[in-house]
Design brief:
Layout: H1 3-40, E1 63-65, H2 69-76, E2 80-86, H3 91-107, E3 112-118, H4 128-137, E4 144-146, H5 151-155, E5 163-167, E6 173-178, H6 183-201, E7 227-228, E8 251-254, E9 265-273, E10 278-280, E11 284-301, E12 304-310, E13 313-314, E14 329-332, E15 336-356, E16 361-367
Parallel strand pairs: 2-3, 3-4
Antiparallel strand pairs: 1-4, 2-5, 5-6, 7-16, 8-9, 9-10, 9-11, 10-16, 11-15, 11-16, 12-13, 12-14, 12-15
């Protein structure tokens, strides 16, 4: 055999041997990697959760809507749970509902459970019929529990409306958001925790979908703060401009003001001072205020006819709120929040509301 052939043969043997050795090495490494993966588990499923609190139990429930106690306790198991603490006459809560109901529709089958914790601000919000009316209006299909004594509110150590807590499938609170906004961030957390759940439980996860796209309400930087008519709620707030002031539990005849200051409300007529509202005792009365905002909402109860004026004239069409049907007249009946002014930009106006309806109750003005 020629030397060149011998050299080629030896070289071939070396190459084949080398390839075989490398194959054995890589096979061994692959096997070690696979074994390590099996032993260590997916990193997503092994997050150190010692720094997270567990979601408290839902306690002190006065009434269940869209569920039962037994069904809810079963539904929560192994689910990513979004706890939405809200109340139905709170405008900030209402603005978040389109996002929450959209997430419920989008992710419920992938392991998300939304639970509405309805913690009331006013007495009328404790009535299950009133809350049922509200959840029907806003298309809420997920479970809602009436936390009338604020026991679940306290268990979460909460102080705000609205507030969203998201717990992972093992019950650890992984996200906490106060107020409106942060919708994209919140949805990404939902997606992340659903992926963790799928990995941990070994279930299929649907492919990622675009985030919910809903126009977000834009608040004005300078606007009138919420105005409370109940003496208990108005404590430490200088919001009633009449000289007669708040007189707890009494019927007070309020006189026409000589002037009107910004961010205050003024009454005329006979009004009874309640903890959370003012009740019209005379057949008619008026409410006046000088405000700055692009949106005005009012929370009321009982039947009455409200004739509303801006700067001495009927509300111009460009300012008409969604609940004003025509000619600046608002007919109120059930306890609810009503939108009376809605504009594109913030501006200052004197509002006068002429009320006809003995027994009418007003709780608050909110602004946007």
């Amino acid at each position: 055999m020629k030397s060149e052939a011998k050299t080629a043969l030896v070289l071939g043997i070396v190459i084949v041997t080398g390839v075989g050795v490398m194959s054995v090495i890589f096979s061994s490494l692959d096997e070690e990697f696979e074994n390590a993966s099996i032993e260590e588990g997916n990193p997503i499923a092994n997050i150190d959760k010692s720094k997270f609190k567990r979601a408290p139990n839902i306690v002190g429930v006065a009434h269940y809507l869209n569920t039962t106690p037994e069904n809810l306790s079963q539904e929560i198991k192994d689910k990513v749970v979004l706890y939405d603490i809200w109340t139905y006459s709170c405008i900030n809560c209402i603005r978040t509902l389109p996002y929450i109901t959209a997430w419920d529709d989008k992710y419920a089958e992938q392991g998300l459970l939304v639970v509405g914790i309805h913690s009331p601000e006013f007495e009328f919000e404790k009535d299950p019929e009133n809350v049922k009316m509200a959840i029907d209006k806003h298309g809420i299909n997920y479970p809602v529990v009436l936390d009338n004594d604020m026991e679940t509110w306290k268990a979460f150590e909460n102080r705000y409306w609205p507030r969203k807590y998201i717990a992972d499938h093992e019950g650890y609170i992984r996200y906490d958001h106060i107020g409106e906004g942060g919708y994209q961030e919140t949805e990404r957390i939902i997606q992340q925790l659903l992926e963790e759940r799928a990995t941990s439980l070994g279930v299929q996860m649907a492919s990622a979908a675009p985030l919910v796209d809903i126009d977000e309400f834009e608040h004005t930087l300078f606007r009138t703060p919420e105005l409370y008519f109940g003496y208990k709620f108005a404590q430490n707030r200088n919001q009633l401009g009449n000289d007669e002031g708040f007189q707890p539990g009494k019927i007070v005849t309020y006189s026409e003001p000589k002037s009107i200051d910004l961010h205050k409300f003024y009454l005329t007529g006979d009004w009874k001072n309640h903890e959370d509202n003012m009740e019209l005792i005379s057949e008619t009365g008026t409410i006046q205020l000088l405000y700055n905002a692009k949106e005005v909402n009012i929370v009321t109860d009982k039947e009455a006819k409200l004739e509303i004026f801006l700067d001495g004239v009927s509300i111009p069409s460009r300012y008409l709120g969604s609940d004003i049907k025509s000619e600046s007249i608002l007919m109120v009946s059930e306890p609810n929040l009503y939108n009376i002014v809605s504009a594109d930009d913030s501006s200052s106006h004197v509002m006068e509301i002429k009320v006809k309806g003995k027994g009418f109750q007003i709780f608050t003005f909110t602004f946007g």
